[in-house]
Design a protein that fits this description.
The chain has 13 helices and 12 strands. It is an alpha+beta fold and 375 residues long. The chain is elongated.
């Protein structure tokens, strides 16, 4: 008895030395032991919870699922969750919830089975991840403003056209109304033109506000071709201003993806801006950019921006996705780096390959919606 008591004391001392919370339960979910880290984490004294159900430390929905896992194991002896780790919500004595990583293992040789749970508090990690997401969002915002700055001349020119047309038609209406016999049908026609040009200018402004607005990330099921076509207004502004032909080659079988549309369109605008700059000084047929979509396979779709410029030198290709690496005198070196971060956040890839006989292809590959659906 003395040796057994000493062994229990040594075991408890070892458990109390652990940094993470450790709790053991029996096959009915009754708490048998709790170390000091668990006391500190959950706000309970071990003496107050030993003999009570582990559900005391969980929100109701988590407790219900946990009881189901144990019952399923007892019935089948097949370990679905036992022996693995998963992220869960845990509950402190005061009722507050916190994120935790829970790993459950069976105590070897125990029958009925007993289980040991290791609980790691993820509160700090989640805070760091949230800070990282906010920092990335701020950088992405800066990159969007930079892209709009680079497109400013083209945007100003594009807006000036409908505004000039509105002024011209308004002056014509004024002259016709001052005449001795105003021609009402012609005035109606001029007013329709004013409305049409106002809508055209408004669409450009709406696209701009949508792209550069400070907003929360929001992923929705989106048709790939629709996402690309939405970009046509702003993309066309930039290419027309630079006297470049922009073509779209859209695969009708491209399918749907789960994305933040604005972020993906930001990536495509960055690639388009790079393609435009690569054509500087070129003439004729080479002043052409193609944006295409294609279904790679059952699980992936690709959006590609292709130009016929001089291509990317090997020494630049090796580093161009690194943050702050740039070959431009006034560049930030953030465009491609942020674009790759956005691609990875969408479980996709952003890459480059040469285009024969000359030029470059930058491609964004994304998992289709079907890939995320359970089989």
């Amino acid at each position: 008895m003395i040796h057994e008591s000493r062994a229990r004391g040594e075991l408890q001392a070892l458990l109390d030395a652990a940094v993470d919370a450790i709790i053991t339960i029996d096959h009915q979910g009754i708490i048998e032991t709790m170390n000091r880290a668990a006391e500190d984490l959950f706000g309970h004294d071990a003496a107050d919870v030993i003999g009570r159900n582990i559900s005391l430390l969980m929100p109701p929905e988590v407790a219900q699922a946990h009881d189901g896992y144990i019952a399923k194991f007892l019935a089948t002896r097949v370990p679905h969750v036992i022996g693995r780790g998963r992220d869960v919500d845990a509950m402190r004595r005061d009722g507050s919830h916190f994120p935790a990583r829970l790993s459950v293992g069976r105590v070897p040789g125990s029958e009925p089975p007993r289980f040991v749970g290791f609980v790691h508090d993820l509160t700090g990690q989640r805070a760091v991840e949230a800070d990282s997401r906010r920092s990335q969002a701020r950088l992405a915002q800066v990159a969007r403003y930079a892209a709009m700055g680079e497109m400013a001349a083209g945007i100003a020119h594009e807006l000036n056209q409908p505004l000039s047309a509105i002024a011209t038609y308004a002056q014509a209406c004024d002259r016709m109304l001052d005449g001795p016999a105003p021609e009402i049908p012609e005035i109606h026609g001029a007013l329709k033109q004013i409305a049409s040009q106002a809508l055209r200018a408004g669409e450009i402004i709406r696209r701009l506000r949508h792209l550069v607005g400070n907003r929360e990330t929001e992923r929705v099921a989106s048709d790939v071709n629709e996402v690309v076509q939405e970009l046509a207004t702003l993309a066309g502004v930039d290419t027309r201003h630079n006297d470049i032909t922009l073509l779209f080659e859209l695969d009708p079988q491209a399918g749907k993806v789960s994305i933040d549309r604005v972020q993906v369109q930001q990536v495509l605008l960055n690639l388009l801006r790079n393609a435009i700059e690569s054509l500087d000084g070129l003439t004729g047929e080479r002043r052409r950019i193609v944006i295409s979509t294609r279904r790679v396979d059952a699980e992936d779709v690709e959006i590609c921006v292709r130009d016929r410029g001089p291509g990317v030198p090997p020494e630049v290709a090796e580093r161009m996705f690194e943050p702050f690496y740039t070959t431009k005198d006034s560049g930030t070196g953030l465009g491609l780096a942020i674009s790759r971060t956005i691609a990875r956040a969408h479980h996709g890839t952003l890459g480059h390959r040469p285009h024969a006989p000359t030029g470059a292809e930058f491609f964004l590959q994304l998992p289709t919606l079907e890939k995320h659906e359970p089989s």
